[in-house]
Design brief:
- It is a single chain.
- By secondary structure, the chain is α/β, with parallel strands linked by helices.
- The chain has a domain at 51-116 and 133-145 and 176-249: Double Stranded RNA Binding Domain (2-Layer Sandwich), CATH 3.30.160.
- 33% of the residues lie in helices and 19% in strands.
- The strands form two sheets. A five-stranded mixed beta sheet has the order 4-3-5-6-7. A two-stranded antiparallel sheet has the order 1-2.
- A hairpin with a 2-residue loop joins strand 1 and strand 2 (42-44).
- Helix 3 crosses helix 8.
- The longest helix has 21 residues, at 228-248.
- It is globular.
- The termini are far apart.
- Residues 149-161, 166-176 and 205-220 have low confidence and may be disordered.
């Protein structure tokens, strides 16, 4: 019995090794515009077209509205994961902001602090209060999807049906997809929007190839590296981020006479704001 179990275990191990044959680390076909890695202010193999800053402008949290329609479409129609890891890598590689955790990682941070408070941590663990870094800014992503037939070519080929067999199925799914993304930058202390940028990208999508050849979804960026839709979205977000950084280089604070949030300059008759009281005075 033990011999049979050992034989099965060895066979499974060998099958696993065989399955890994031909796997190429760092495959160019799996790349998006968001490439490489980041560590502190340093980055490796980052896209050369990504804007970079000599110094960081402050701390930033990426905040995703997971209750919005675009997020539902992202997860359920395109089977893609959160946009947060992708955007966070772009931001850190650029060195324009220092990224702070405000997502799912907060649960782990809270767990460590709970253990510290319970007395279970070793001395010197140093998980006491007053150590977390504030997020100066929030970066909010959103997506507008667009999908259209690539000149009817896919439908025409797909119409051959049985005569083309699998090729007809592949051609029938051939779409030209594009996406438009938005990034808005908000000051967390005042709630004032500091910047907004739109980005776009497009790509011809041979959607059915993934099912025909058994391509597996997944990866550290949740499908953004191995689906046409994911690569388009990565390109659109990189474009939006570059546009945002370019604008921030010439940033000038918006001003309102009398101060922000004190009633504005559009008065109303009988109102109590300064602008309202100035009505009829000629000021």
């Amino acid at each position: 019995m033990k011999y049979r179990m050992l034989t099965v275990a060895v066979a499974l191990a060998l099958a696993g090794c065989a399955d890994m044959q031909g796997v190429q680390m760092g495959s160019q076909s799996a790349k998006t515009v968001a490439t490489g890695s980041a560590a502190g202010a340093a980055s490796a193999n980052a896209n050369s077209q990504l804007e970079r800053c000599d110094e960081s402008l402050g701390t930033l949290a990426v905040v995703e509205d997971q209750g919005s329609p675009w997020y539902y479409q992202l997860r359920n129609e395109y089977k893609l994961q959160s946009t947060v890891p992708l955007i966070r890598m772009l931001v850190q590689q650029s060195n324009c902001f220092v990224v702070v955790e405000r997502g799912s990682g907060m649960r782990s941070m809270s767990t460590e602090r709970t253990l510290e408070a319970s007395g279970e941590m070793r001395q010197g663990s140093n998980f006491g209060k007053g150590q977390m870094v504030a997020a100066d800014y929030s970066l909010n992503p959103s997506i507008a999807f667009s999908q259209s037939d690539a000149g009817g070519v896919g439908a025409a080929l797909g119409g051959f049906g049985r005569r083309l067999g699998m090729l007809g199925a592949v051609a029938g799914s051939m779409k030209f997809k594009e996406a438009s993304t938005m990034l808005t930058l908000v000051d967390n202390r005042s709630g004032v929007q500091l910047g907004a940028a739109e980005g776009s990208a497009s790509k011809t999508d041979f959607g059915a190839w993934s099912s025909v050849f058994g391509s597996r979804a997944g990866g550290s960026l949740g499908g953004y590296t191995n689906t046409a839709e994911g690569k388009v979205l990565a390109g659109a977000f990189a474009d939006a981020y570059n546009q945002l950084v370019t604008s921030l280089r010439s940033y000038r604070a918006q001003e309102v006479r009398g101060g922000l949030g004190t009633g504005g300059r559009l008065g109303v008759s009988g109102g109590s704001t300064k602008a309202s009281k100035e009505l009829g005075t000629g000021r």
